[in-house]
Specification:
Shape: elongated
Helix content: 40-55%
Strand order of the largest sheet: 1-6-2
Number of helices: 9
Strand content: 5-15%
Radius of gyration: 24 Å
CATH architecture of the largest domain: Alpha-Beta Complex
Number of strands: 6
Order of helices and strands: HHHHHHEEEEEHHHE
CATH topology of the largest domain: Outer Surface Protein A, domain 3
Distance between the termini: 69 Å
Largest sheet: 3 strands, antiparallel
Length: 254
């Protein structure tokens, strides 16, 4: 078979597997054998997406779920050959290719991102090193160091509570602030925080010269708070809680 003809045969073969309703199977292949490839490849992709987005899978009935996954399988051009990156490809599809459907829950893309974060942290090969970190350092007078396996996130929807029986029709007035993290037992967990704690984390991650107290005083000035002592105590409590969960590892050694 000439190379050009072989490539044409390959394209026909893969096009049929992706979308058998639209693309006929190549000539000369028994449909029973072709069916094995159709089922095997689709089931692999569908199974991986279902395991990566279990809450979204629960939200959709079988018909709507398979319709969405088959559309992704047929239409999306993935840029990665790795199975672990299928979830990212699926999010790209939801964000940029899938038109809204009546069965889609509000906040679908944010929920998908949240579920992807859980998977990404679970499989991350990032390691925690305590080099140049004082686990018992003073969180106020020194610079708190955050775990590389702790991701502060903000969503318009309460993605951590969403499920088949809890689907808000619209985003609430208050965004949801979370830190999703992997602990030392390799368990992925989340911590819901308030906007002030989220700002505290942001300031410390953006300014390596800031001590914990520097960041708290920055917030006091931004808020023009009438009771600075209360904010300072609240800030210290927040830092201590973050360290308790392993989100803060300690303080940077001089």
């Amino acid at each position: 078979m000439a190379l050009a003809e072989f490539k044409k045969h390959q394209y026909e073969f893969t096009a049929h597997i992706r979308n058998p309703k639209k693309n006929p199977k190549p000539d000369g292949i028994e449909d029973r054998r072709m069916g094995i490839y159709r089922e095997l490849l689709y089931n692999n992709i569908e199974g991986f997406i279902a395991s990566g987005f279990p809450i979204i899978r629960e939200i959709y009935n079988d018909e709507n779920w398979h319709s969405m996954v088959r559309d992704f399988f047929a239409q999306h051009k993935s840029h990665s050959p790795y199975f672990l990156e299928i979830s990212q490809e699926f999010i790209d599809y939801l964000q940029n290719e899938r038109s809204p459907h009546s069965e889609d829950p509000a906040g679908l893309i944010e929920l998908a991102h949240y579920e992807w974060v859980e998977l990404a942290l679970h499989v991350s090969d990032e390691t925690i090193s305590m080099d140049n970190i004082d686990a018992n350092g003073d969180l106020l007078s020194q610079h708190p160091v955050f775990s590389p396996l702790a991701w502060p996130l903000v969503y318009q929807f309460p993605v951590h509570t969403m499920g088949p029986d809890n689907l808000p029709d619209e985003a609430p007035a208050q965004p949801t602030y979370l830190v999703v993290y992997r602990n030392r037992n390799d368990e992925v967990r989340f911590l819901e925080i308030n906007p002030v704690s989220a700002r505290l984390i942001g300031l410390l991650q953006e300014n390596e010269s800031y001590s914990g107290l520097d960041a708290i005083e920055h917030i006091i000035k931004e808020m023009n708070h009438p009771n600075p002592e209360a904010v300072e105590q609240g800030g210290l409590n927040a830092l201590q809680e973050l360290q308790q969960y392993g989100i803060i590892l300690g303080t940077q050694c001089d």
